[in-house]
Amino acid sequence: MRKLSFLLVMIMVLSLFTGCNSEPAAPAASSESNTIKVGLNYELSGNVATYGQGLTEGIELAVEEINNNGGVLGKQVELVKADNKSDNAEAANVATKLITRDKVVAILGPATSGNTKGAIPVATQHKVPLISASATADDVTVDSNGNVREFIFKTCFSDSFQGVIMANFAFEDLKVKNAAILMDNTSDYSKGLSTSFKERFESLGGTVVTEQAYQAKEKDFRAVLTNIKSANPEVLYLPGYYEEVGLIVKQARDLGLNVPVLGGDGYDSPKLTELAGNEALNGVYFTNHYSSMDDSPEVVEFKEAFNAKYGKDPDAFNALGYDLAYFLADAIERAGEAEPLKIKDALAATKDFKGITGTLTVDENHNPIKAITIIEMKDGVQTFLKKQEP
Question: Where is 389: in which H helix or E strand?
């Protein structure tokens, strides 16, 4: 009996030990299943939620089409969606979760340059491709030493390109010689655009009469706008995100600062009109990735499909997300296997990929060579002004 009791006790102890030390089995890698898992790391809430929401809508429409047409490599694409809450640290946490727990083969997003930079170290460490369709900062794909980040890609033009194009537009199209700059000094995006605009504008013979700054989430900009007005600029370059830009433009007009206002793709949100008002936005121009005025067959078909799914017309972020999903699908097909290293190589070799936002080729720095669009606001409505090839 003593031997039997001893054996029973030992069995109980071993079972408790095993239970305490066991961990759930990790999910199988996507390449070994009937689906290909792709992570979405987006700003679905927080300060720039409309960007992340817009990109996600475009991606989901594209993936629905891809899956309905047989998927990729005969497998269905499975999206694993997570909210980085418009926060750099959370973007890193989301990237870690998507790679280590969900076993995705690639990450799409984040939307902004700052949040993308938060996720870059994680993707690099785990050797999983990360692609942003809207992180325009020049140092997203290239580090401070000029080295290309092997696993990081983007499908949008860079800040330096946006800034140069808008400086050319100010000097050559608007025929102005004096400019003021008002930037968000908490934003890599805003600072990068400001630098490239200033360098190009001055190289053309223009003068930056004043440079002022604000911080994200501020609400009252009248003091800094009064300083700008006193400098008598002919144009105001205001690179930033819609939440502050809308308020700044409205307050500028209220103060009688009625010069043209120029900016970048951060203006592209329906909330810009809500914040500034239709009339205040007259004389506002910004660089963007896409115009809904494009009447090419591909764009018309995309707009019809998007409207049928969401009951609204697509904006540039919707179009960028749509292209991003097809861009990744194209690379996986060419890779021949849903394996991160092979996908990375296929992404780097992309040539003449035709999307809704234009045809792109990936350059040696993992940036796209593609056209840029200039949008003019007229009574609160975006209107196509011109398209500039690289």
Answer: none
Q: What is the pLDDT of residues 164-196, one digit of tens each?
A: 999 999 999 999 999 999 999 999 889 989 999
Same domain, 63 and 169: no
3-state secondary structure of 15: helix
Give the residues across from 355 on adjacent strands. Answer: 358
From 232, 255, 288, give the residue that closes a domain.
288
DSSP string, 195-242: HHHHHHHHHTT-EEEEEEEE-TT----HHHHHHHHHT--SEEE--S-H
Check whether residue 328 and residue 259 sit in a common domain: no
User: Residue 39: which domain range?
Assistant: 30-157+296-371
**Within-domain flag for 15:** no
pLDDT in tens, 132-165: 999 988 899 999 899 999 999 999 988 889 999 9
Phi, psi of 119 (to 5 degrees): -90, -15
Residue type present at position 50: T
* CA within 13 Å, CB half, 95: 30
Residue 379 located in a structural domain: no
CATH code of the domain in which 176 resides: 3.40.50.2300
- 34, 73 Cβ separation under 8 angstroms: no
| Strand extents, DSSP E, the chain | 35-42, 76-83, 107-108, 130-132, 152-154, 178-184, 207-214, 235-237, 261-263, 284-288, 353-355, 358-362, 368-369, 372-378, 381-388
Provide the whole-model pTM: 0.78
Q: Is residue 24 part of a domain?
A: no
Question: Which residues in 273-312 are b (16+ Cβ under 10 Å) and which e?
Answer: bebbeeebbbbbbbbbbbbbebeeeebeebbebbeeeeee
**What 3-state class would DSSP assign to 374?**
strand
At which residue do the structure tokens 């009252």 appear?
220
Residues 97 and 145 reside in one and the same domain? yes
Does residue 34 lie in a domain region? yes
Q: Highest mean pLDDT range out of 198-212, 283-297, 372-386?
A: 198-212
